[in-house]
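Figure caption, in words: inputs first, then the predicted bound structure.
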Amino acid sequence: MTIFDTAPDAPDSDADTSDSAPLVIRRPTVHDGGAMWRVARDSGSLDLNSSYSYLLLADHFADTCRIALLGDDVVGFVTGYRLPADPSRYFLWQVAVDAAARGRRLAGRLVDAVIDDLDGVTSLTTTVTEDNLASRAVFRRWADERGATLAETDGFTTEHFPDGHEAEPLLVITGF
Ligand SMILES: CC(C)(COP(=O)(O)OP(=O)(O)OC[C@H]1O[C@@H](n2cnc3c(N)ncnc32)[C@H](O)[C@@H]1OP(=O)(O)O)[C@@H](O)C(=O)NCCC(=O)NCCS
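Bound structure (coenzyme A present):
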C-alpha cells in the first residue's frame, strides 16, 4: 500500500480496496478541525486540547498536519510544526487513529505523508509517555523502516507540569 502525498488539492489516495470506502490522506482545512478534536477526544489516551486549538492547527498549520479519511469520515490525524528556532526539526504534537481504523499502520502512514512533503526536515521529535506502548511501537517501526536512529531523553518531566501530568519523555528520530 502506498500513500502519495502531493498537493493540498490532490488528496493522497490509498490503493487499499479492502474497505468499502477508500482511504485518503490529505492536508486538513479549518473545516476538519472539529473532527480532529473528536478523534482526539475518543482516542482514549491523548491529552484533549481545546477545540479552538484544533481549528488553529487545521487552519494555520495545514502544511505540517494531515488527516486520514475513510469516505467522508475523519478517522485519524497527525499534528505538528517546524520548530520556529530550527525549521529543519519537525515536532510531532499528536497522532491518533479511531479505534475502528487501527491495526493498519495508519499512524505510520500519516507520519510518512507529512514528513515526505516537508523539504529540509532532518529530524522528528515527539514526546510519548512510558506506558504508551502502541505509540512507541509506531515510532520505533517508523524509524526502523527508514534506517533511522531513535534516541530518547528526559523531555518534559513531572516537575515541568503544574497539574500532576505524567512525564513525557522525548523521542528524537534522525537519519531518515
Ligand atoms: C498510537 C495509534 C495512533 C496507532 O494506531 P495505528 O496506526 O492504527 O497502529 P497499529 O494498530 O497499526 O499498531 C502500530 C504498532 O503498535 C503496536 N500496538 C498496537 N496496539 C498496541 C498495544 N496496545 N500495546 C503494544 N503495542 C501495540 C502494533 O503491534 C504495531 O506494532 P508493529 O508495527 O511493530 O507491528 C493509536 O493506537 C491511537 O490512536 N492511540 C491513541 C492516541 C495516542 O496514544 N497517540 C500517540 C501519542 S501522540
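Residues 1-10 have pLDDT under 50 and may be disordered.
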